[in-house]
Amino acid sequence: MRRAVSWSDVRFLDGQRPAYDLTYSDVFLTPSRSDVPSRLDVDLASTDGSGTTIPVVVSNMTAVSGRRMAETVARRGAMAVLPQDLPLDVVREVVAWVKGRHPVLETALTLRPTDTVTDALHLVAKRSHGGVVVVDEDGAPVGVVTASDCQGVDRFTPLSEVMSRDPLTLDADDVEADGGLHRAFDALHDARRPMAPVVRDGRLAGVLTRTGALRSTLYAPALDDAGRLRIAVAVGINGDVAATATAVLEAGADTLVVDTAHGHQERMLGALRSVRALAPEVPVVAGNVVTPDGVRDLVEAGADVVKVGVGPGAMCTTRMMTSVGRPQFSAVLECASAARDLGKHVWADGGVRYPRDVALALAAGASQVMVGSWFAGTHEGPGELNVDADGRMYKESFGMASTRAVRERTRGEGAFARARKGLFEEGISSSKMYLDPERPGVEDLVDQITAGVRSSMTYAGATTLEQFAARAVVGIQSASGYEEGRARPVSWS
What we know:
Layout: E1 4-7, E2 10-13, E3 27-29, E4 56-58, H1 67-75, E5 79-82, H2 88-99, E6 110-111, H3 117-124, E7 131-135, E8 141-146, E9 164-165, E10 170-171, H4 172-176, H5 180-191, E11 195-200, E12 203-209, H6 210-218, E13 232-235, H7 241-251, E14 255-259, H8 266-276, E15 284-289, H9 292-301, E16 305-308, H10 318-322, H11 328-341, E17 345-349, H12 355-363, E18 368-371, H13 373-376, E19 386-387, E20 393-397, H14 403-409, H15 415-422, E21 431-434, H16 442-460, H17 465-471, E22 473-476, H18 479-484
Parallel strand pairs: 2-22, 4-5, 4-18, 5-13, 6-7, 10-11, 13-14, 14-15, 15-16, 16-17, 17-18
Antiparallel strand pairs: 1-2, 3-22, 7-8, 8-9, 11-12, 19-20, 20-21
Helix pairs in contact: 1-2, 2-7, 5-6, 9-11, 12-16
């Protein structure tokens, strides 16, 4: 019989520490005796101080994390990190905007009756529900426009001539009351409407979809002490880090991420010490590293959480350019063990392609899993929605060490300095991230991820993330073993 023994707080089948490092596809989880009756009986909230209710963080990538992404994932219990490249006035504006969003109602796209079909077509594709609310001068909803309403009519036709008038509306006070989400779902279902405007005192307060009503009964939003959606902000290690961090904290960031590709360096340690000297009342995250020594040095310098991962990201070419990095499962496993010894935490940053990878990172001891390019191809990604020659919708993504990102980051410098830095590229400058027609929104992907993680926890007999990391039993597999686990959409015969 195969037996399990401990290695860095994770139990491995057959009891021997492998002689090589492992990445997510190299390993699998085995089922254990469990008394957890349902995937809904597990708690996905993190204990790392971030306040998330699901262990997912959106990476601080320009092509991935913006206001719309931050609002949406926080409503489902996750948290987005704004990139360090954003000017401080933009950071202040975005943080304030996200803090002003409703924890249940989705922010509506609005137009006026005198706006045109062209205006509506520019907006309808920006939401999974595909609707725009038409409001009057007092902010009251008078109609709803969808893409189908705009077909076969002149593009300059006023919306007053094509909108669905007197739409079904929901009352915000009733939605917020006990049982309100159930009643809202029933109303939408009975009216055969995918979404409806929600009003408060006659004015538009947001929109609610049938799926959104369901999700709000399953997810708890990530809220600060004032009941507002949470958001994190990244800062770099160059310039006056203390001044930048002070401004970010004053803007209302709930978590501060001190970020650079090579986190185990003196400038990072100095930046961390200057940030810690500010006595921030929010968690300080720093990285990236891949070794226990890196974790210990960053914690000593002031980090509450350490980001782990060098080179596993979909847009990153660091390993091919420099050979520097480490297979992500082993990196997370050993770094999480070192952080745990110090009473701290790690975030697994990069390398996830499937929900199984998120579960494996959590089993290895991460308190959160950062997701980047996987979320780029969604309605909520900040990139412009494009259509290829075959009619498939996509958004562009790019690495944060790519020529494109470096150009954005150094736009305030002189031409000569920018040109020199542009010679050094360690990331992909443009990649098409196609929207999945069945799962075009980031909430669809969050559903997939959390469903997989919840099921993994029930297989392990764990009801919390801490129990999951303690109870998970990991096995090592060949490439053919990994391939065997992949579903086949059609029969080979």
